[in-house]
């Protein structure tokens, strides 16, 4: 029931936030903060499962789903409300809610008009995302997948910057058109499953043994893959991302980059690999190549940007390439790395976007050519920014390093060329992250800025507390990666086993790494 | 089937072809043999030597149109009543009721037309618009 | 004719009685409000009698004299059309009160306040014609004989010509509205006549093949023979062309945008919903009754028409600036989607998909036109300069009248097929039906069409949420149009769009239906089954 409570609290909180605007101008901010915190408190119910998983002793004995809710919805189509929660979902929901709070705080001063409606859309997006992370019925999954889009569209279209209408429509059409393909694939999958088994169902667990012909499975898998790859985003389908991220308000960018992109990766891990293991294995070399290209191409484009927010946006493309690479390496180690990367990237990118938002709020520009020397004016902000920049470039000791390292380790036996190329991407990350630091915080103060009437204020506690919390989490992940690895292990192992059962035996070379991972310090 | 039909139809077909041929012949001959002139009177309609006067576009009262359409409507409906009259005994009471409903509907239509002024003729005949505005003015 | 058959006929008889009574009353007492009341009352009585008939049909449909068959399915359509007509008449009432029904497109010519009240408008006849057309639709959906089919179709069509050309009765002489309405009415008249000619020729060929006009008899004769006779196939294709005209499937769609634009908006709503719905319903019945789903030729023609409609409709809609024309093209595309499900009509699931999509389409389209109509009425009252039919008129509407804009957003999302709305379930049904039959090419056209369609629906939605005046601290780096820019129309209509209570209720009911059937589709599915 906890999943349902969280989702309904977010939905209801959204409506309440909209209404409360009329009574207190600040009301909707507090309401949305309160509802996200309430959801976090609800999530504490799983502390038992978490500590069991962390201790690592009873993982095998644990049921896969910590909690499972099921109810009838549309019996005509065999559609049911099935919401499940396991370690992977738990991690991602936790990430969603934590960054949700960061987003509310980041938008505290940025959003001035239609505050109520802003928070309504914000909370509904979060609710849709939590729904995506828990839905186990494909129809329901698609339902939430779409529900999170429309409020997001409004967030960009109403409170965005500059060319926001174009960005919003582009974002929506890209994701919507690809999800139509997914809908088509879902319907076809259910129908073929019905032909083979005589049961009309959208239940993910029952669809696992659909017994499709390999060719059909491959085409349907492509339908899923395109939808998820657009969200991820993988390279040829990424063009919506820089626009949407750049034009969105800070809170919108945080949700987009830190959480919304993860729904694509989640979809790959949760649905595509288990449902189409053979087809995915056959497709893996292509997907890994796409991943490697995304890493390099994203890094190259990030390097070429003069707009700070666009730079961060392109760095997301690059980092999410690691996720794609890891997932399609089809072994536990790499998938674990991909999950780690999802979380670490979520934290570090959210931090960077929040920082860009703060700078933009102060000097009304994102052009790096017009910044410089901010270290002197705002040393605390600069220090935080340096932290997130090095996190993003993968400094050992932080979560991103562990993630990227694990992905590369896992992917190497499967596809050496792609892995080597991906490793080069790490150098690219160092280049663009340091260039960003150099242009913005070091060097001389630019003349244009001297004219700014108000002095450049350093971070306030409202701004710095969530950033410091995120930084702390990144350090924790870097030093104690089992926080993530142990929680996601059951999911990752089930998926990897399913995938490996169909792989040629030569690729099984790395299975020895799996147990070792469990005992990670 | 075609073989059966053709022998019976061939005189008709021959006649049709003959007509067509004659027309073509006449047009072609006159085209080649006739002299051509362009005068002021060339395009005028030929009225047996009398010069045509005035415009062909006459305006005549819309009342004629109304009468014509009313005639068509009510006269056509009467045809159905003939059919009923012939089978009056066979149709019995049910037929009588049905015919009464039919006549009743026609009657209502007539009343509607009357109220709308469609039956007025002559001096009183006005366009619907004028009529209504007169009424509205009277009402004031 | 036994008592049971007579009782099955009560909805039709009631509606006929209501029409005659209303005609008598109008002849003696012209009162707009009274006429609307009587119309709604008449519709309510007919709905009541329809509900009374339904217990009779628990087991079997009742055949009335071989010309009509009343089944549960046709009763569902009765209800759907009756309720739609009720909505249309309420919209018409407001339109007449504001004069938009008489002068839909106001080109900013001389216009005096109260101009529309001193001149007679014969508005009462609008309701009369509406009811007559409704009667035609109801007769049409229960036809089981080509004679009844033709009768119903013509009864519906004849009244429609007058409804579409209604502004021509009275407007300033030489005004643009009058010309447009006349053009629309004439276009519809001429093209409908052409369509009818095709239809009749098709019927004649079918008759030439079998000497039968009753659907069941034709089916029996066809089943007795071997394969598909040539005359039957040609006849059906010709019939299809006639139907395609009525449904405005591309390439027979040329009348649609002009008619939609020129007609008064309530009449447009009626043409788009009831008239098309009735034709779809009877085509479904006709095809299943005479077994046309097994024949290749008509099905292939239909498949081609579906693809062209989906693509042409969506592509042409992209460039429209007039909201009525946009909705016209979108309706062409939607009927195209519907035909995909129609092709699977042989199976029970396909029928269900067709009916569900039809209900979704009617509810949504009616809602969209209701918004357009009520907004135009408001614009007339507020005397705005810019035309309320231009998309730019809706700029920033979300901030001025959030409820109206929210409901319009819902309608547009439903047209685009986004979850939470009835349109999504409809599209889902189409996917399911298409996958079942393995129509991969058609489905890819559906996907492509929907993806294109997203753009123009979204454009309106985004237009509505644009902030009219609020200036944000915008970055100077991106030298785009500043959000502080205000369109002239937004300035003029800065206050909210106010709508009469009954109009608000109509919108509320439609929006709630749209959401309820979108989130809990099982309710509607049970009714259909």
Automatic annotation (TrEMBL), chain A:
Keywords: Membrane, Transmembrane, Transmembrane helix. It is a multi-pass membrane protein. It comes from the Bacteria. Residues 135-422 form the NADH:quinone oxidoreductase/Mrp antiporter transmembrane domain. It is found in: Endomembrane system; Membrane. The chain crosses the membrane at residues 27-43, 88-108, 115-133, 139-159, 171-192, 212-230, 251-273, 279-299, 311-330, 342-360, 381-403, 415-435. InterPro entries: NADH_Q_OxRdtase_chainM/4 (IPR010227), NADH_UbQ_OxRdtase (IPR003918), ND/Mrp_TM (IPR001750). The keyword DNA-binding does not apply. PANTHER family: NADH-UBIQUINONE OXIDOREDUCTASE CHAIN 4 (PTHR43507). Belongs to the complex I subunit 4 family. This is NADH-quinone oxidoreductase subunit M.
UniProtKB/TrEMBL annotation, chain C:
It is a multi-pass membrane protein. Residues 143-452 form the NADH:quinone oxidoreductase/Mrp antiporter transmembrane domain. The chain crosses the membrane at residues 6-29, 36-55, 75-93, 126-143, 149-169, 189-210, 230-255, 267-287, 299-319, 326-343, 355-376, 397-425, 437-458, 506-528. It is an enzyme of class 7 (translocase). NDH-1 shuttles electrons from NADH, via FMN and iron-sulfur (Fe-S) centers, to quinones in the respiratory chain. The immediate electron acceptor for the enzyme in this species is believed to be ubiquinone. Couples the redox reaction to proton translocation (for every two electrons transferred, four hydrogen ions are translocated across the cytoplasmic membrane), and thus conserves the redox energy in a proton gradient. Belongs to the complex I subunit 2 family. This is NADH-quinone oxidoreductase subunit N. It comes from Biformimicrobium ophioploci.
